[in-house]
Structure of Enoyl reductase (ER) domain-containing protein:
Amino acid sequence: MAAPSIPSHVKAWVYSEYGSAVDVLKLDQNVAVPHVKEDQVLVKVVAASLNPVDSKRMRGFLKATDTPFPVRHSSHLSPVIVPGYDVAGVVVKVGSQVKNFEVGDEVYGDIIEKALDQPRQFGSLAEYTAVEEKLLALKPKNLSFVEAASLPLAIQTAYQGLEKTGFSAGKSILVLGGAGGVGTLVIQLAKHVCGASKVAATASTAKLELLKSLGADLAIDYTKENFEDLPEKFDVVYDAVGQSDRAVKAVKEGGQALKIVPETPTTPIFVLTSNGSSLEKLKPYLESGKVKPLIEPKGHFPFSKTVEAFSYLDTNRATGKVIVYPIP
């Protein structure tokens, strides 16, 4: 395939100081396309999804370990950060050492390897972005770009978190925040991939039927019940909301609670290490439909409305993922 024409400058959402999206996030019409290193590919971004970590980073919650705002000292760096972890798009250029992808490949991934440790300056909320080959996988053919963009960070967090607890067939699990981006995938993976003996999950009243449709055996209305007061205890409690003091009370003797949401900046949590091999491992379950992406019905925002997308994300009411699409 002939290499497509690549512009030198593109549109990207940027910020140069910490704060909420409505205050600091700006659309820059003239951002230099990132330089492609030998182990990277350049991706024409088709869709991106937002994660709570995007908002936390922008607000300065990760300041202690964040990449410092760059200093303008080369043609490839500007003193701004382009946010965005999740991407789906098409490869338009490959570095000299890239072996697994070629121009024209449809790919997806979480492009920030260490979610909280010096995350990259140039993320996915741009028309083009450069990504290390090892962080990407070929998009499952049955998924749209929007569906693929909704998955990488959330499904890898769900899957690697379950792996960390040693979760396996015959064990029981309670998922706190079962209707969120990660929780919806933990339920499906635990039930349909790991072979859980029982899956329980919490959500608000209106979302209980959704939990059951995803595979939950027990849907708990957190507005009416305290899950820690239930007589039944669980091998694993997967805390996707940040209720660790309560979560440990629902764990069986010998079981464990895993938390992914810091309640304070110093709270120890499970942190994802992104890699394309995790996505490749999960590909059969996505292609067979055992595991399905879930996108918030009100969560589709065009590129020009990215600030509004962040504002919706920050309400914490999304069921599944918030998506930015189309990207010009």
About this structure: The longest strand covers residues 40-50. The mean pLDDT is 95. The radius of gyration is 20 Å.
